[in-house]
Write a structure and sequence with these properties.
The complex is a heterodimer. Chain A is of the alpha/beta class. Chain A contains twelve helices and twelve strands. Chain A folds into two domains: 169 residues, Response regulator (Rossmann fold); 168 residues, Response regulator (Rossmann fold). In chain A, helix 11 crosses helix 12. Chain A is globular. Chain B has a single domain, classed as ABC transporter involved in vitamin B12 uptake, BtuC, CATH 1.10.3470. In chain B, strands 1-2 form a two-stranded antiparallel sheet. The chains are: A alpha/beta, B mainly alpha. At the A-B interface, strand 7, helix 7 and helix 8 of A face helix 1 and helix 10 of B.
Chain lengths: 412, 292
């Protein structure tokens, strides 16, 4: 027995190898960690920049870019990387992982609820905070994610506020008794239509939902869906759409001469977007929608609108660009207070967020224990002269609501 | 309620006619060469971009693009088959498969590079036009597209039936060795079949441009749709393609009305499975063949 047991020798050699490898890895990763603690904050922004959601995705990016410029002028430098998930929600996680691998210590995204949930899983695993710019499915903040901070309302909150706004506009001559809901069948559409069904019945609005018609998110033709809605004879059409399907629905309603008392999107993107009003022209008018919106009376909002009109003279500042702008405000605020670009420090700073001066309607931006901002205001908008205007609540209204809607054939 | 069902039937028939034109092209190529064109949907999308492009440049309705789509896609199909595809006609099917999948990927890639991945829609006053017939409102764009598709299918049928070249296509489809023995230039005939099939796809694309937003990744849906129609109607059968197209169009429309709109494609695949089980040769596949 002159030597050590072979397995022990082998273990020692293996240990030395591991130690060497660990030292080598340490020398690589430690500077990376040091780098992550100083210098500008590397922010990854996940958006649908191509595919069917590209219109709102690009609007959100423009608002984000404008905020990055405006905060840079105030000395807050953010190194922003944009990543496109091509309007495929399942890509959210892959894109988030790539951004995290590339050194982003905080992410913003992802506009679509499905993509946001997908990205949140990667953020949770890597312990990197995710600031949700737009994404309304309740489950985003109900799945126990610790890294999610959503500065956008859950769809059921929007629907509940919408009920209040809608009750305010009921009057003699405009008292719809029945409604048909047309909704896209993705995560957002299912969550919102579920909320509509549950909350409208409870609310005492006196409007009975006679049919809920779902359609595929990639549907190219909604003629049958609209024919079905028309056959229901409903007084009110409640579409839960994105912009492309909102265009398809209104175009079919015109063709089929379906003239309900109103079209009202409860928590629905689409009608306020420029792509919609450009495509529909006079047929865009009178469409109602309740969604979070900017507060045009605030000084900060006026400054942002002024900068926006110079940067994008042909664009429209709306929900997407507004929450894109605020997502950077939230991150910049956390970065300034954290004085660090480490994810853990940013996470702690985000939990303490309290921003009074911001652009979207509602109270201060704060995050509750689940990462939800509960203070977002939900006005009622109506498209008038091909522009979205606030028509409720009364104290915030920019114009009087016009109801019932003008018949398609009588539009000048 | 009757209006709903009649409307769905008319819509299904109209869109089915355009589907039939797409499937006719696929059927013609298969009937003559026994080659499956996996790039067929991509050729439809080329036609859609041509329709969209002409509308953007001139404001003309996409139906005016049909001559350009026919000529352009015919030239493309003919050239591809003559100089590349013919070398693969006698090769094993998996080799042909790779060639046409490759062609499909190239076309989609070129579309994505030139036009980007975003949907492009034709928005014009004509998009809202309707015809009122016996209390029904018929979408004018859809009706024009269906009529144009029917005219093109009828012209193709007449050409195959009565022209000398059409008869040569029949001969090559029926008996290739015999066709060669009597002096038919089969390389030219194969290229002609591919050119005509591609032209059908391109023309159908031009007709679909005002109905659907155009984007590169639509192509696979059209290829799949054409396969379903061809299998339901019967492989290598022109009347089968027409019947299959109309059946799939109407089945989708009725599925949306009777069951649930999001179950449209479920219904067409269901139809495919039923036909495969009960009539594996397709509805008209056993009785009549393209050019036979």
């Amino acid at each position: 027995m002159t030597g050590k047991h072979p397995s022990l020798r082998s273990d020692r050699r293996r240990l030395m190898k591991w130690a060497g490898a660990s030292a080598a890895l340490g020398s690589l990763s430690f500077p990376a960690l040091v780098r992550a603690q100083s210098g500008p904050l590397k922010v990854g922004v996940i958006l649908p920049l191509s595919g069917v959601l590209s219109f709102p995705g690009i609007a959100t990016r423009r608002g984000t870019e404008l905020a990055v410029k405006m905060f840079a002028e105030q000395g807050v430098t953010l190194d922003v990387t944009y990543a496109d998930y091509e309007s495929k929600p399942e890509n959210g996680r892959v894109v988030a992982e790539r951004l995290i691998r590339d050194g982003c210590t905080i992410l913003i995204g992802a506009w679509d609820s499905g993509a946001t949930i997908s990205a949140a899983q990667a953020c949770e695993a890597a312990k990197v905070p995710l600031v949700v710019n737009v994404g309304s499915a309740r489950q985003i903040t109900e799945q126990g994610f610790t890294q999610v901070f959503r500065n956008f309302s859950p769809s059921d909150d929007i629907v509940a506020h919408g009920v209040q706004r809608f009750k305010e506009i009921l009057r003699p001559g405009f008292e719809p008794k029945t409604a048909v809901v047309l909704h896209v069948n993705d995560t957002f559409g299912q969550a919102t239509s579920g909320a509509v069904k549950a909350l409208w019945e409870k609310s005492g609005m006196g409007i009975r939902i006679v049919d809920m018609i779902s359609y595929d998110a990639r549907a190219r033709d909604l003629s049958v869906e609209v024919a079905k809605a028309k056959a229901s004879g409903a007084d009110l059409v409640a579409p839960i759409t994105r912009v492309n399907d909102a265009i398809l629905i209104v175009r079919e309603m015109v063709k089929q001469d379906y003239n309900p008392m109103a079209i009202y999107g409860p928590s629905s993107p689409g009608p306020y977007e420029k792509a919609f009003t450009d495509a529909m022209g006079k047929y865009a008018n009178d469409y109602l929608v309740s969604v979070p919106w900017y507060d045009a009376s605030r000084a900060l909002t006026k400054r942002v609108l002024d900068r926006w009109s110079k940067a994008y003279p042909d664009g429209r500042f709306e929900l997407n660009s507004g929450f894109g702008w605020e997502s950077i405000q939230v991150v910049a605020d956390a970065f300034q207070r954290a004085k660090s670009n480490r994810s853990a420090d940013l996470h702690e700073a985000l939990r303490q967020t309290h921003i009074n001066d911001h652009i979207m309607a509602g109270g201060p931006i704060v995050f509750d224990g689940k990462g939800q901002n509960p203070n977002i205001g939900i006005p009622l908008l109506q498209v008038q002269n091909q522009e979205p205007v606030v028509v409720g609540p009364k104290d915030a209204a920019q114009a009087a609501v016009k109801l019932p809607m003008t018949r398609w054939s009588e539009r000048a | 309620m009757n209006e709903l069902y009649v409307g769905a039937l008319i819509n299904g028939l109209l869109i089915g006619a355009v589907y039939a034109l797409i499937a006719t092209g696929l059927n013609l190529i298969f009937g003559v060469m026994r080659v499956v064109n996996f790039a067929h949907g991509e050729m439809v999308v080329i036609g859609m971009y041509m329709g969209y492009g002409l509308w953007r440049l001139t404001g003309w309705p996409p139906i005016a693009t049909i001559p350009f789509a026919l000529i352009g896609l015919f030239a493309m199909g003919y050239g591809f088959q003559r100089w590349i595809g013919n070398a693969f006609v006698a090769r094993p099917q998996h080799v042909q498969f790779v060639l046409y999948i490759g062609l499909a990927l190239v076309i989609t890639g070129v579309h994505a590079v030139i036009f980007g991945p975003d949907p492009m829609g034709i928005q014009s006053a004509a998009s809202f036009d309707v015809y009122r017939v016996a209390g029904l409102r018929i979408d004018a764009t859809r009706l024009h597209a269906a009529l144009a598709a029917c005219v093109l299918i009828a012209l193709l049928w007449a050409w195959l039936r009565f022209s000398l070249t059409g008869k040569a296509l029949h001969a090559a489809a029926d008996n290739l060795l015999g066709a060669r023995a009597i002096g038919i230039r089969t390389n030219h005939i194969f290229a002609l079949a591919m050119g005509m099939g591609a032209a059908c796809a391109g023309a159908a694309g031009a007709l679909l441009a005002p109905l659907y937003d155009t984007q590169p990744y639509l192509a696979s849906e059209f290829t799949l749709l054409a396969f379903i129609i061809v299998i339901v109607g019967g492989l290598a059968s022109l009347p089968g393609a027409l019947l299959g197209g109309v059946l799939v169009g109407v089945a989708e429309a009725f599925a949306a009305v009777v069951i649930e709109p999001s179950a449209k494609s479920l219904f067409s695949y269901g139809l495919l499975i039923i036909v495969l089980v009960l009539m594996p040769q397709g509805l008209l596949g056993g009785r009549q063949g393209a050019g036979r």
